[in-house]
Amino acid sequence: MLQGIYTLANDLVYDQLVALLNSIDVNVGQDFPVCIIPYDHRLEKVTNEIKKRDNVRLFDNNEIIKRWEQFATEIWQTHPSILELWHSKGIQGVYRLGMHRRFCAFDQGSPFDEFIYFDGDVLVLNKLDYIFEQLKQNDFVVYDFQYKDPTHVFNVKSDKLNQVFSQERIRQEIFCAGFYASKKGIFPAEKRNWLIEQLQAGEADILYPNAPDQTILNYMVMKGAVSAYNFSLNLPPEQKTGCSVTSPHFELRDNLLYDKEQLLTYLHYIGVPLSAFNRLCLGENLEIPYREIFLHYRYLYEPENCPNFTGKAQPYDPQPSLIEKLLSKISRVLKI
C-alpha cells in the first residue's frame, strides 16, 4: 500500500510550495512521496523545483484531471443561479476550477492508496504516522476546528440546509479542506452520479459558492456517508493543538511550533494572501503571523537568499487611517 502527500500548486505559489516541501523534508522525511497536482498550466518554476527532489512528482494524468473537472462542473451546473452570478462577475465557467483538481486524489487511477492532502500555504511540523493510523478505522480524517463556523462551508441562509443535514451534524462533521487524509476509490462513478442526482433534486442550494471546492468536498463526505474522524473532536483537551495562523499563542522553539507544550501537526496560513508571501520573499518588510518559521523553511537550502529586514515590519494589509475613512465616506456621499 503506497502512502503519500498531495498538494496543489502553480508558479504563483512557488515560495509557499518550497516552504511546504522543505517542511516535509525535515519533519516527515526526505524520502516520503509527494505529488503536486497542477492548479493550471503555469508550472515552469514548479517543474524545475521537482527536478531537485527525488521524492516529488507532478500529477500529469490529464484524463483523470479532466474527469474530476467535469464532475465539479456538473455539480455547479445543478445550482439554480451561481454560474450566472459568476458570469456576471467576469468568471468564465466554474470559479477557481483548478482548486477542484484536488479531487483527483480520490481517483482509482491516482498513485497513492492512502494520502494526506495539504493546501500550499501550510507548513508540516510533525510526523504523520498517527494520521495514517487513523485511516485503518475511517476513510476520511481531519484535524481542524471549522465546525465552529459553518458559514464558509455551506449556505447557512438556505432553508434546505437543515433538511439535508441536521444542526448536530453540521456542528460536528464539517471541516476545512486545507488538510485531510483519505483513500483513493471512495467516490466511484456510481456514488458521484448519485450525489449529482441529489443536488439536481434541490440540494444544490446549500452549497457555498465562495469556497467552491470546500463546500463540495464537505457535501461529498457528509452526504456520501463516508466514515469520518476529526482529531479536534476526539483528542483529550490537553492533547489538542490549533493549526491556524489566526491563533497568536503558539510558541516557536527549534523551528517548530507548540500549543501549550503540544507540537502542532501543521500550520495553515489561512487568510494570508498570496501577494503577501510574494512581497515578503521579494524583500518587503511585512508583518505576517509566524513569518520567522515560514522564512526558515522557505530558505532552508538557500539561507543566503533569505531577505534581511531592518526596522519595523509593516502590516501586509494596512487598515485605512481615520482621515482615509472620512474621505472615503465623503466620496460615497457625493456619489449619491
The low-confidence parts are none
Give the strand line-up of the largest sheet: 3-2-1-4-7-6-8
Structural class: alpha/beta
Encode the helix/strand succession as letters: EHEHEHHEEHEHHEHHEHEEEEHEHEH
* Radius of gyration using CA atoms only: 21 Å
What is the molecular shape? globular
Tally of contiguous helical segments: 13
Question: What is the annotated CATH architecture of the domain at 3-237?
Answer: Alpha-Beta Complex
Main CATH class of the domain at 3-237: Alpha Beta
Helical content class: 25-40%
Report the portion of residues in β strands: 5-15%
Q: How far is the N terminus from the C terminus?
A: 65 Å
CATH superfamily of the domain at 3-237: Spore Coat Polysaccharide Biosynthesis Protein SpsA, Chain A
DSSP strand tally: 14
Average pLDDT over all residues: 94
- CATH fold name of the domain at 3-237, please? Spore Coat Polysaccharide Biosynthesis Protein SpsA, Chain A
**What composes the largest sheet?**
7 strands, mixed
Description of the structure:
The structure is a single chain. The chain is an alpha/beta fold and about 325 residues long. The chain has a domain at about 5-235: Alpha-Beta Complex (Spore Coat Polysaccharide Biosynthesis Protein SpsA, Chain A), CATH 3.90.550. It has helices at about 15-25, 45-50, 60-75, 80-90, 130-135, 160-165, 165-175, 190-200, 210-225, 230-235, 275-280, 290-300, 320-335, and strands spanning about 5-10, 35-40, 55-60, 115-120, 120-125, 140, 180-185, 230, 250-255, 255-260, 260-265, 265-270, 285, 315. Strands 3-2-1-4-7-6-8 form a 7-stranded mixed β-sheet. The chain has a 3-stranded antiparallel β-sheet with strand order 9-10-11, with no helix packed on it. It has a two-stranded antiparallel ribbon with strand order 5-12. It starts with a strand and ends with a helix. The model has no long low-confidence stretch (mean pLDDT about 95).
